[in-house]
What we know:
Blueprint: E1 5-10, H1 13-19, E2 24-30, H2 33-41, E3 46-48, H3 52-56, E4 65-69, H4 77-80, E5 87-91, H5 103-109, E6 114-121, E7 130-138, H6 145-168, E8 173-174, E9 188-190, H7 198-208, E10 214-216, E11 219-226, E12 236-240, E13 246-251
Parallel strand pairs: 1-2, 1-4, 2-3, 4-5, 9-10
Antiparallel strand pairs: 5-6, 6-7, 7-8, 10-11, 11-13, 12-13
Helix pairs in contact: 5-7
Amino acid sequence: MTLKKIDLFTNELAIIKxxxxxxxxxxxxxxxxxxxxxxxxxxxxxxxxxxxxKIAQIKTLGCDLGISYGFGxxxxxxxxxxxxxxxxxxxxxxxPKYRGRHPITAAFLNNEKKIGLSIHSINEKIDQGYLLAKxxxxxxxxxxxxxxxxxxxxxxxxxxxxxxxxxxxxNISKISxxxxxxxxxxxxxxxxxxxxxxxxxxxxxxxxxxxxxIRVNGKEYYDAIFYFKKKVNNLNKxxxxxxxxxxxxxxxx
Length: 253
């Protein structure tokens, strides 16, 4: 079967490697300067873009299909219509339950035991359009956002094939408004740990471990451990949460 030609919108090197086995990647668009420099060395047809206007100015834009993964720019119809089969977004969340820029963080804060990965054909609205395929990965309390993404990557090839099958067979469904969560660009700050359940604070720490950690009671931490007296050391801080439950937070070095 002839591979479809796609334009890829992403800030993730891993997804480029995965999708290059399933499609002919015509062009890559990224917001990440480091990815841009890296792929330039590999002689990939890559563009560094920071706005929709910058994307629209590229004359060669458009081919069979556009695919987006971990990309922050919201597309307009003028861009979507340049692709024969539209633009598909690989969304790290259970749509429409978790719409927004950081669905994994939102799912952690809600103490979800499984995290959804959705592929949808987009429209101009954030994380809406038509659902093409969806799967779930199991989440344990040892997981953080990085480990969840690694689990997602192992499922993307299979999910893409399901999405293609459903698209061809028109086995798709319109995505409802669902729940939209605002981005967590400023991280998570908890001014008084005694007002929050210890599970919530634990999940918050795990969700932000890959980023800048969390700020609790005025101090910064990058991880959390369920309370055991023997785990307390100089790098750890015991905090008191709601209902006098204790939690260990790991200090930033």
